[in-house]
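Pipeline run #58 for the internal structure catalog. This entry was flagged by the ingest filter as a single-chain record with no existing model, so it goes straight to prediction. Upstream metadata was stripped on purpose; only the residue string is passed forward. Reviewer on rotation: M.T. Logging verbosity set to normal.
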Amino acid sequence: MVNDFVLALDQLDQLPASAGLRQRSYQLLDARAGEAVLDVGCGTGLAVAELAALGVAAAGLDPDPDMIEVAGDRYPKSEFRLGSAESLPYADGSLRGYRADKVLHALPDPAAAVAEAARVLAPGGRIVLLGQDWEGIAVDSDDPVLTRRVMAALSEGIPQPLAARRYRNLLLDTGFRDVAVEGHLAVFTDIDVMMHLLRRTSNDPEGPSWLAGQRDRAKRDRFFGMAPILIASGTR
């Protein structure tokens, strides 16, 4: 299961659009050489390694020990710690940057995580949040009515599927200033890249047959999917 998830992350990370989003998040962090930045929900550690290559004192944190092990094996010179977004193992005001990519939707209380980010950031420190709006994910189909119903199953089991559209208000309510939000559209013509998401359509009774139809489309090079990605930033 872990290997499948790591493979899905790797496929997504290798997309040119994903690389562009990561680079944009680093720009918004505006971290200078040597400044301490934390990547929360660091996964396989790619963002930490890329930030370190820019001269930033980057560290990664993840609640999954398997992900921490993978990240440590891949990037042994970087710092990775086990921990949760709601209880960061860092002192008040000790960080200059905080980044969380595809994290807040997986938490029962995103506001608590943003409050914790505010606690560990020094005055003037930057926060950057990235994530997809789960109800905005769409796939082309010959049966749009069924597709709308099947796609609704994507959100089942996600604690906060609408967290991304709340980023701006979460930051403002926590006292961040200079809050800004950008919208990006991720386009997928390779079904394999979206499979980690589309497997959730099996929560619908007709999900498996719908997915089989999409696989057939992919064999004929007719698969098309898209997902809105939001990037929010602010200053402590």
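catalog note: The chain has one domain: 2-133+159-187+225-235.
catalog note: DSSP finds nine helices and eight strands in the chain.
status: ready for reviewer M.T.
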